[in-house]
## 1
Amino acid sequence: METLVDSFGTIIKEIRKEQKMTQKMLSQDICSQSVLSRIENNEELPNVMVMAQICQRLGVTIDHVMSLSNGTIRGGLKEFELLDVYFQKRDYRKLEQILKSPEVTENLYLAADCQRYYYYLGVCEFTLRKNITQALCYLKEALSYSNSSDRSHVSDTEIQLISCIGKIYGVAGRTAEARYYLSRSIQLFHQSINDRTKSEFSQIFYNYGSFLFHQNEIEAALEQVSQGIHWAQEKNSYYYLNDLFILKSLIFKRKGELKKALFYEELAQSVKKISKSL
């Protein structure tokens, strides 16, 4: 029969990997990395205080961890991977279809999964139906799954959804709120840039750059767009690269630098062709 010491470490390890968190990130200010390694290898059972802190950082309760069996964590992993694929492809109709499938809705037991679920719902609602009120409702729900007691570990999804909230406020004409959320997402990204690997972060630079462009803050917009392009190229990703090149072309047009504008317009067209062939 599987005992507490045999199961706690295994499940904690599964949850940590699912959230793409390193042992160093999880153990920081809680216990040493070597102690966490022993816990995950079921060589040591932590005291209740350490156990509670680990669970809190992972966004789950001790009771919930104890209710799970080995392998349960990844029960709906295939569907969640598909969510990410369709999100990256910007195929929001298929994304929404999978979001509403029982394979996803019945496997929402981790705070990180719930946050991603409501973030994607908000994106679909805004993109497919332009329903600003409902989209913001979903995004604010996603934000409620953040670990407010531990701000040293902000998730990738949280940074992206904060940027998305800012983008929608911008479309709604609520400039002050838009600027706050958009700049906040960039700030959070830079605070932990060494821990970030997702190519999708190019979008947060596009969102802020687009907002600044429409506020006629041209140099600030150019800075954000250039950072987004650099991030996409560093990650060998085409995600939002076409959009960034188009925006950079528009910026140079407004600056009256037509040769540069044409150069980036041609780059955008090339990226669009390549992206369609992938």
## 2
Amino acid sequence: MYGEDLDFCRRARSAGHRVAYAAAARVTHRASRRDRAGTRTYLRHMLRNRTLVCLRNYRWKRLYLALDGLVLFPLTATTEFLRSRDKARAVRWIVEARIESLRAGRAILHTGRGRA
């Protein structure tokens, strides 16, 4: 839901497993993205996990962090802020998500491992 599928598939392929698309598979969602958008949980995971998935799985970690800090995170955060009903809370949650992603990202860079 928040990038875990990308992380899982990338790790599975790295471990030698095959990842395939199942066109006939169907998933029923009980809540829409619109219902979740603007909630603390949604903002935290959506903004944080993209950064962590990329840092865990891709080679150019420092370049990604620079791109994320200058372009990707600001664009995503602005979009989610504008969609949010409670702007004051959204700002706080966006800042919390960014701080959390930077801390975890720093740990990934520092340890050189894929997990924070």
